[in-house]
Specification:
- The complex is a heterodimer of chains A (394) and B (362).
- With 394 residues, chain A is mainly alpha-helical.
- Helices cover 70% and strands 4% of the residues of chain A.
- In chain A, strands 1-2 form a two-stranded antiparallel ribbon.
- Chain B is mainly α and 362 residues long.
- The chains are: A mainly alpha (394), B mainly alpha (362).
- At the A-B interface, helix 7, helix 12, helix 14 and helix 16 of A face helix 6, helix 13 and helix 16 of B.
Chain lengths: 394, 362
């Protein structure tokens, strides 16, 4: 009973936020239905969300064959297997970018640099993978994935070191580094690492370093790499001395200093680790069976989505895994929604942004709905914003 | 003059200086730089207004994008309703463009009001509030743009053509050319920057704003209404983000593309820090950032003389993409250097990022 109450208190705000976001999304779909369908369609959100759910899980609860809507629960096993596989494939990188933000929160650091770290991790993985393309599969995959993690860690080290030694705030530095990574990598791929042959600029194929498919069309090793990081991160944060130090410096930097911990070392270490998670995300996207090379024009939103994932999961590794599955499911179901209900897939981005909006205004939600719930925002977040105006942390 | 270029090392410097002067004075580089710097300078004014009163704003990008879309849609709708309206001789004003600009400003203020409410009343994390605005703005404008698929366009404002005599003046002619051969929004920037600079440092409002940004408790003690002032400044800041959006779809382009702000809001944030939270400084930062881009374009079309030109053309021929992208990357590198305190420290207003809680109230 006690556990059930605890789970309720922990999850009620995220659940309400998701429901409210879906509700606002539904209103948006209805309001824009004259443009998308040619007439005002009050039932369109139901159709859209049903297609979304079916695309993400294979569960269907509507029968739209004869034009009229009829309730009919059904699961097509083939479709469900395909849908769940694509949900897992989409969720993998989000778990990692979620950890890249969430672990930072624990230390009172806001890592907005997920995007840049994903790109750097991706290019490192692609280049290392191309270099070991002829090696046996286990060797090639291991080296390429580790190279991605290393690339991300290096790119997380930069804001960490700048913050520790100069006090430059990590939020602004990582925003700048996001754009910087994009420009530098486009230049490098176009001028140096481009291979001749393909019609567009891209790096060489990674050959044997491509992540082996284990089930379904594209259910690959990357999923396991990503979800394996969840217990690892949990152990690190809650069961090791380093994790204790990270949590202490996040909750109260001066207390940590008085206790003899070095905030400098912890800032550098934590941001490098955040970068490593995001770099891994880049590696499993680039090495995944649908790519296998780094295209010069490679835009990705998984870095920013990591912020939503981390907050939705209360920056706890287990929560992050659930949040990533939810967002991954939305991304996986979006194409089905676009085809079956003719709703542009960008609505997913709006809904994910709205989730974040409602999470951010949880104080209002708690007051309005009078729910007994724990605050969603990690307490360490106060350390983040409060440090913005101060020149130095050490 | 060529003999100067032959001196080792120093000759190289002469070449660079000579080329820069030539590029600024004799080509169209100066007006082009000012035009490109407009949305960044305006976004930076929004940032200065926010951060000087103690509110972090990383949502400038989203505010701009929303304003660009709303302004464009409003202009297209009005243009459809009154197809016979003739552009006036003055900047090519049409009712559609005018309504578009007003709608863009309104949209900028509305999004800013959301940010103000989240940051000041709800006391949500201000960095997250800005991130929310960026994510929703990109998603919502892309969704609406794809769903509605607006056809047609309301055109753009015309540039003003200063009298030839003024532009041809020796030594100072290029300055007139730079500031006068512009559309209305670009031309308004310089006025806005100067007014804001004077108000911020020479008026009662400015003193109060800076006090609220540095030490809200002290300001409250002497009777300044911290909440009201922050609300007012953040929402007024939205005007500038809105104008920046209007520049994108009503002055520079005549259409809306998804994500067309292309990081300009983040460069604006960089300009604020680069300019140490002053309007003039931020404007200078925006000009410097865009001058480097414009210079990159100029060198491509017209390489400088002597060794310098050979050297630059060589890099450009071998590594065209790295060469071009390094000019785009420059603002970000400069900002990180400034933040790290390598060339003098840049310190934010002390209370930035902290929601204000009145003593005793909860």
């Amino acid at each position: 009973m006690k556990l059930a109450r605890r789970i309720y208190a922990l999850s009620i705000i995220p659940i309400i936020s998701v429901l409210l976001a879906l509700l606002v999304g539904a209103i948006l779909i209805i309001v824009t239905s004259p443009a998308s369908q040619g007439e005002l369609d009050l039932l369109l959100p139901i159709k859209a969300y049903e297609a979304l759910l079916e695309g993400a899980t294979g569960i269907s609860f509507l029968n739209t064959d004869d034009g009229a809507l009829a309730f009919a629960f059904s699961i097509d096993p083939d479709r469900a297997a395909r849908a769940l596989t694509s949900t897992l494939v989409a969720a993998g990188p989000l778990v990692l970018t979620g950890l890249a933000v969430g672990v930072g929160f624990k230390a009172g650091l806001f890592n907005i640099g997920g995007t840049g770290q994903v790109l750097v991790g991706g290019i490192f993985a692609a280049l290392a993978g191309a270099a070991v393309a002829e090696q046996p599969v286990p060797v090639a995959v291991t080296i390429a994935v580790l190279a991605g993690a290393l690339g991300g860690a290096l790119y997380g080290f930069i804001p960490g070191a700048l913050k520790a030694f100069t006090g430059a705030h990590e939020v602004v530095v990582t925003i700048m580094l996001n754009s910087l990574a994009a420009f530098v990598i486009i230049g490098l791929v176009n001028d140096i690492f481009k291979i001749t042959g393909p019609t567009f600029a891209r790096t060489a194929d990674v050959g044997n370093a491509i992540l082996p498919v284990l089930f379904g069309r594209d259910g690959n090793v990357g999923i396991f790499i990503a979800f394996a990081m969840v217990p690892l991160a949990y152990f690190l944060i809650y069961r090791t001395t380093l994790g204790f130090e990270i949590r202490t410096v996040g909750a109260n930097p001066s207390a940590a200093r008085y206790a003899g911990m070095s905030p400098r070392r912890l800032i550098i270490l934590t941001l490098s680790m955040c970068g490593m998670f995001a770099g891994l995300a880049g590696a499993i996207v680039i090495l995944g069976p649908s790519l296998g090379y780094y295209p010069a024009v490679f835009g990705t939103t998984i870095g920013f989505a990591g912020i939503t994932v981390a907050l939705l999961g209360r920056s706890h590794p287990v929560g992050i895994a659930f949040a990533a599955l939810l967002l991954g499911g939305m991304n996986a179901g979006a194409p089905a929604m676009q085809i079956e209900a003719d709703i542009q897939r960008e609505i997913i981005d709006v809904i994910q942004g709205l989730i974040l909006l409602f999470l951010a205004m949880e104080v209002v939600i708690r007051r309005l709905l009078r729910v007994r719930a724990e605050s969603i925002a990690p307490e360490e977040l106060q350390t983040v914003s409060a440090s913005y105006g101060q020149g130095s942390t050490t | 003059m060529d003999f100067l270029y032959q001196i080792p090392v120093l000759g190289f410097v002469f070449q660079i200086v000579g080329y820069l002067i030539d590029a600024v004075v004799n080509t169209n580089l100066a007006p082009q730089t000012l035009a490109l710097a407009t949305p960044i300078a305006l976004g930076a004014m929004c940032g200065v207004m926010n951060e000087r009163s103690g509110v972090v704003n990383i949502g400038i990008e989203g505010m701009m994008l929303t304003a660009a879309f709303v302004g464009f849609m409003a202009a297209v709708i009005v243009d459809d309703a009154m197809p016979d309206a003739q552009p006036s001789a003055f900047f090519g004003f049409t009712p559609a463009l005018l309504v578009g600009v007003l709608a863009a400003i309104g949209a900028g203020m509305l999004v800013s009001a959301l940010h103000a409410w989240m940051s000041i009343s709800v006391r949500a994390d201000q960095i997250i509030s800005g991130t929310v605005i960026n994510i929703i703005a990109l998603g919502l404008t892309s969704y609406l743009n794809r769903t509605i698929q607006p056809s047609g366009s309301a055109g753009t404002f015309d540039s003003f053509h200063p009298p030839e005599a003024l532009v041809d003046l020796p030594i100072v002619g290029w300055i007139f050319n730079m500031f006068l051969s512009q559309g209305p929004i670009t031309m308004s920037v310089i006025v806005i920057v100067i007014i804001l600079q004077v108000l911020l440092f020479r008026s009662r409002w400015g003193l109060r704003t800076r006090a609220v940004g540095e030490h809200p408790r002290a300001a409250d003690t002497v009777g300044v209404n911290v909440f009201a002032l922050r609300y007012r400044n953040v929402i007024l800041g939205g005007i500038f983000a809105g104008l920046a959006g209007a520049w994108l779809t009503l002055e520079f382009n005549a259409s809306f593309q998804n994500g067309m702000t292309a990081n300009r809001g983040f460069i604006a944030l960089a300009a604020v820090i680069f300019g140490r939270w002053t309007p003039i400084g931020a404007f200078g930062g925006a000009l410097l950032f865009m001058f480097s881009e414009a210079l990159g374009v100029a060198i491509r079309s017209n390489p400088p003389p002597g060794d310098l030109g050979v050297w630059l053309s060589g890099i450009q021929a071998s590594y065209p993409s790295i060469y071009n992208n390094s000019f785009s990357a420059l603002p970000y590198i400069l900002t990180i250097i400034v933040l790290a305190g390598v060339v003098g420290r840049s310190i934010a207003p002390a209370a930035v990022g902290q929601p204000y809680v009145k003593e005793g109230a909860h």
